[in-house]
Amino acid sequence: MATECDFDLFVIGAGSAGVRAARMAAATGARVAVAEERDMGGTCVNVGCIPKKLFVYAAHVADEAADAAGFGWDVHAKGFDWQTLLSNKNQEIARLNGVYTDLLEQAGVRLIEGRARFEDAHTLTVGGRSYTAEHVLVATGGWPFLPDVPGIGHAITSNEAFHLETLPNRVIVVGGGYIAVEFAGIFRGMGAEVTQLYRGPLFLRGFDDDCRQFIADAMRGHGIDLRFDVNVASIEKTPAGVLAVLSDGKVLEADHILYAVGRHPLTADLGLEEVGVELDEDGAVVVDEYSRTCVPNIFAIGDVTNRLQLTPVAIHEAMALVRTVFGGQPTRPDHEDVASCVFSHPPLGTVGLTEEEARQRYGEVDVYRSIFRPLKHTLTGRDEKTLMKLLVEPKSDRVVGVHVVGHEAGEIVQGFAVAVKCGATKAQFDATIGIHPTSAEELVTLREKVS
């Protein structure tokens, strides 16, 4: 490590990726600094995973209260107070901000508040002061994208949705990715009238088709007005909120219109291009298999690289980077068989290949699928089902995909992700005795293939 520089590693961004990389690098004895211009913890802590999951919990309480009667409980919900949820959420986020700050300080990392910008490959400026570093890590994350639609200034994104002064009675959600689907379920669960618009024939592109259709049907069953193959032509501000003119000529009115049509990497005005770092057409930092840019001492990880935009992936990339740069163990991040969950209503947990991907890779694929009513709802009377699906490569008998739509899907799939990562076979699934009665036992008792 060079001694003439101020730091061995200078990290731009104190989100999940940057904080983990900074702490682990400092643990090797490296001199590390982190520059952050917003809140500690990045997207996940402040306007992503954590507050979103808290909102998801809140949105499901009404269902739990309604289901209580089937089990003999006389429960009457007096109503939902948005301000209480916001206050409690903000308190938890503030606590986490402090935790991230403490973790960096305890690790001996220098925290610098402000926006960092490259002067050259080894020099950065923050607040008018220059710092030099042997290695620089770009971990600035992403930001919601807003398309060029007339009146788009009247729309909000997921960022603003976490800070609305009042709970909207009517919401239009535009988009078909997991963020759009999750917020449609959140607002509906809290009692709002929700219309979700998606320009394609079916949302959640990239996920298994059976799961996509199953979730669409379930969301309609929860009263969400799903409209596919339609987009917003223009937005107008009204005294009561917004008015959206759709591409099919119809008009919708709502308190808010929330756009969740993608996120772009936060790379503008960092000086990256001036120092020779290559960006792709979306502004993402182009990196090699070791997260190194075309400038040898500059690296990038997390959402800013637009690989897999998941917090655990960003943390994994950080660990691999520290081993590569400071541990003498060149380590490639592993992006195969990464489990994920869409906290929709109902949620989707998934690991491995979709059926389409499996057929493209292997040709022949054995499909096992079950749709059933969970035991809980035999007493609640709720018409809500669970979908479970296994994909098996027949020559090796290896399970290459596990997909669950239903209560606690993420919790179920997290465990089965270990089996998929280890290359477990269908025979090994079959040899595993299930826990009865659970929904998860279905995954080790599937015997009949489907066409």
What does this structure look like?
The protein has twelve helices and 22 strands. With 451 residues, it is of the alpha/beta class. It has three domains: 199 residues, FAD/NAD(P)-binding domain; 110 residues, FAD/NAD(P)-binding domain; 105 residues, Enolase-like, domain 1 (2-Layer Sandwich). The strands form five sheets. Strands 1, 2, 3, 4, 5, 6 and 16 form a seven-stranded mixed β-sheet that branches. The protein has a six-stranded antiparallel β-sheet with strand order 17-18-21-20-19-22, sandwiched between helices.
Q: Please summarize the sheet with the most strands.
A: 7 strands, mixed
CATH fold title of the largest domain? FAD/NAD(P)-binding domain
Overall strand count: 22
Mean pLDDT reading: 97
Sequence stretches where pLDDT stays below 50 over 5 or more residues: none
- Given helix and strand content, the structural type is alpha/beta
- Number of DSSP helical runs: 12
Rg calculated over all Cα atoms: 24 Å
Summarize the model shown.
With 451 residues, this protein is α/β, with parallel strands linked by helices. The protein has 12 helices and 22 strands.
